[in-house]
Design brief:
Strand content: 25-35%
Mean pLDDT: 90
Low-confidence stretches: none
Structural class: mainly beta
Number of domains: 1
Largest sheet: 6 strands, mixed
CATH class: Mainly Beta
Order of helices and strands: EEEEEEEEEEEEEEH
Number of strands: 14
Radius of gyration: 18 Å
CATH topology: Jelly Rolls
Length: 250
């Protein structure tokens, strides 16, 4: 397939048939992603690469937009590990009009995904235009102890910091990531979770190696009882349901 059809955001990222694996995400006008020594992404011969752009045209006229990506190659003999990305967050967002709000949850890594030997070397927080803060901590359980790994001051929703780690960290078996997002809804409408620029998100992406595949990971308190629901896709039996819920709205 050489001509991609129009599609919804992250189409194919949740399930393995027709899997589309994110390798880098940015909101910045110009950005660079540096991988650690002896770490790289790999591409199959004749691999198709999808550039997905998200824009909101606030003008009365049609606008042409474009994006470019430069990849820098390495000799196979110089590479020991392949990198991947964990795109993690929650759809449990409802922000009353003209009010501040926050969401604080703990994502427990599911038992089928072992990140205890992973090396997370960079993290970027993500909200839409109402976002004012993103904080992330790693912990062996939801009760702690917590180790802060991401807390930019100030947080800029349109140019969020990508924090890199000289000493990458892992997530213990049974552990996870504690995350908190804050917003200030200055609009006259309640705002909920969604992919539109007029809706909101609380997500972050973590770059890691050695690769166990690119994953979209969700925590929600809408299902699963007191501990909520934690799932990473592809790989979870609920991925089809999650994809449907994301399309139709949680």
């Amino acid at each position: 397939q050489t001509t991609p059809p129009p599609c919804q955001p992250f189409t194919g990222a949740l399930n393995s048939p027709g899997m589309i694996a994110p390798i880098a995400i940015t909101q910045k006008a110009d950005d660079q992603i540096f991988l650690p020594d002896r770490v790289a992404y790999t591409f199959a011969p004749h691999q198709m690469v999808k550039l997905e752009m998200h824009y909101l045209n606030a003008t009365d006229d049609a606008e042409d937009v474009s994006a470019t990506v430069d990849f820098f190659t390495a000799k196979p003999s110089d590479i020991d590990h392949e990198a991947s990305i964990l795109f993690t967050g929650s759809p449990d967002i409802m922000i009353p009009k003209m009010q501040p709000a926050s969401l604080h949850q703990f994502f427990t890594v599911p038992s089928y995904l072992d990140l205890s030997q992973a090396k997370i070397f960079a993290i970027t927080g993500h909200t839409h235009a109402l976002g004012t803060d993103v904080n992330i901590r790693v912990a062996p359980s939801k009760t702690g102890p917590m180790t802060e790994v991401y807390r930019p001051n100030p947080f800029s929703w349109s140019e969020p910091e990508t924090k890199t780690f000289d000493q990458p960290f892992s997530i213990p078996v049974g552990g996870g990531l504690d995350f908190e997002c804050k917003w200030n809804n200055t609009t006259s409408e309640d705002v909920k979770f969604g992919e539109s620029a007029t809706e909101e998100m609380c997500f972050f992406w973590a770059y890691y190696y050695p690769s166990q595949g690119s994953k979209v990971c969700i925590h929600t308190q809408q299902y699963g009882g007191v501990n909520g629901l934690n799932a990473c896709c592809p790989g979870d039996s609920l991925c089809g349901l999650i994809e449907q819920q994301l399309e139709n709205g949680f």
